[in-house]
Amino acid sequence: MGFALVMLIATLFFGMLASFSYLNPEFYNQYIPFYQLRPMHVSAALFWIIGGATSCLLFFKKEVSEEGAKRTIAERLFINLWMITVVVIFLFYSFKKFGGREYWEFPPFLCLPLLISWLALMVAWFKAWLKAKDYPLYVWMWTAGICFFLFTFLEQNLYQIPWFRQSFLKEVIVQWKSNGSMVGSWNQIIYGCSLFLMVTLTGEDSIARTKTAYYFFFLSITNMMFNWGHHIYNVPSASWLRDVAYGISMTEWLFFIKMLQSFKEKMDERRKFKHLITYKFLIAAEVWVFFNLTLALLMSIPAINRYTHGTHVTVAHAMGTTIGINTMILMAAMSYILRVDELEIRDKRWVHWGYYISQASLVVFWVSLIIAGFLKGTRQFNFPHITYQELMVPVNYWLRVLSFSGAFLLLGFLLMLKTYFKALRKA
Amino acid sequence: MGIKPLVFILLFTAYSGYSIFTYTFGTKAPSHAPHADALATKGKLLFQQKNCIACHQIYGLGGYLGPDLTYEMSQPTKGRTYAIAILTAGLNKMPNYHLKQDETDALIAYLTYIDNTARFFNNN
Ligand code: HEM
Fold this sequence. Notes:
- Chain A is mostly helical.
- Chain A has helices at 2-23, 25-31, 34-64, 73-94, 111-130, 137-156, 162-166, 168-202, 211-226, 239-250, 252-261, 263-273, 277-299, 302-308, 312-337, 345-382, 388-426.
- In chain A, helix 1 (2-23) packs antiparallel against helix 17 (388-426).
- The longest helix of chain A is centred in the C-terminal third of the chain and has 39 residues, at 388-426.
- In chain B, helix 3 (79-89) runs antiparallel to helix 4 (101-123).
- The termini of chain B are far apart.
- Classes of the chains: A mainly alpha (427), B mainly alpha (124).
- Protoporphyrin IX containing FE sits between chains A (8, 11-12, 15-16, 18-19, 22, 38, 41-42, 45, 314-315, 318-319, 322-323, 327, 402-403, 406, 409-410) and B (63-65).
């Protein structure tokens, strides 16, 4: 878990540097150019989220199964191999050795140790699964997430087979399709953690057992499997691929309506638990789900997607969800595991301050990305013949706002993490 | 547990089936579609090793510091000469990679291949 938290700091730090190099590339190109910072930032983010999710999972596993507290061999294999590979990946980046794929920008042979490590995690999980006391919804979500990560990870590497590489169309689709679905797989693990926490905090076991809950679970995995198509609206593939994706992504309106309906209940519940740090993060994540779902629904409409695709609106979608939802839930889960709520008031005050600073700056951060993206998208349509520099003039202003609010985001997280690390040392 | 494992298995099967369908019929290319020659293939490898994707998008996939390059070569105001000039010398935010002549040629061949494929499929 400590390693995952270090990755979070690395993410924020490289993100910060990356955004500075956006604004001042001439300077950074001499030392550590953007094409090096971006993979460092994005990979650190991925490893923070996946590493954070799995370390929470390994902890919760003990609470839902009859297993002892001791780490099994498979668990240790997973943790150590994973950490070593991540470190090696960063070494490769620092020597400018890239694989040149989006998001997983390291040389592809490093996928092999990651794969072995994941298989070890699966062994550990299914061993505990057999000994589980019971199978409430979150156990299902964790299982689905773990299995599906394996599928999409393998799928993502299909391009290494020449048959896929020969067709440029296939190669592009492999990347969009597998990455689009893979996000869903860790979301299953993370939402599972969030549900587990909700059940534990409120003591209402029933939330993880109702028919509606399962219905939405199956709807969400259907979305995870078939919804990637909105990423490829402008890839010249068969048109039914787009129609299926569009149809499926519209079912997400159901999630949206459901959220609105349960809003009042949530408000009542909030009054009861709002003193708890763990609960605070869960509520923050809930609010960000709402914002991001609204954005995602709009982006999935082809007429709007034409303008937003390939602009910073996509980045707003990516960072809005990874920070607002995934990171907040992980912060909640880790605060529970590390018993942050039981620390002294003095330590908790840092978390409260950090919490409010990071939420406020994230709003500015997110909105500035959306505005930057819309400006770029519409300007590309309206002025197709101007140079890229001219195109970006008004956009750069908003990227400056982004960079500025990003600095506060970093500050907010550092304040919170100060206390988390203290708790980690105690644990 | 009841019916849940069944739904689970059903969904995973549907997913696998759909994936196979996607990679065959969904992305089928007629035999007269553009193919990458040796030079373009070399360009693609270079494009990956130099991590151009960190700043450029192809079909919207990639980083967002620089412009999308899918239709770069057929843009009336830019195109080949412009691209060669930028690759050779860099320009403000675009780094100068100090590429050799044959590397520039390969990258241009790759970009041309992408452009041709994109327009070919759009016209069909
Ligand atoms: C927990 C914190 C963060 C997470 C999880 C995160 C995650 C991500 C992800 C997933 C991407 C890829 C986006 C895409 O390609 O669509 C990205 C890109 C980026 N992030 Fe972050 N980020 C975080 C914090 C920050 C901060 C504090 C900054 C600094 C201002 C920052 C600046 C950037 C920049 C400049 C990019 C590149 C966008 C591009 O492709 O042009 N990030 N981040």
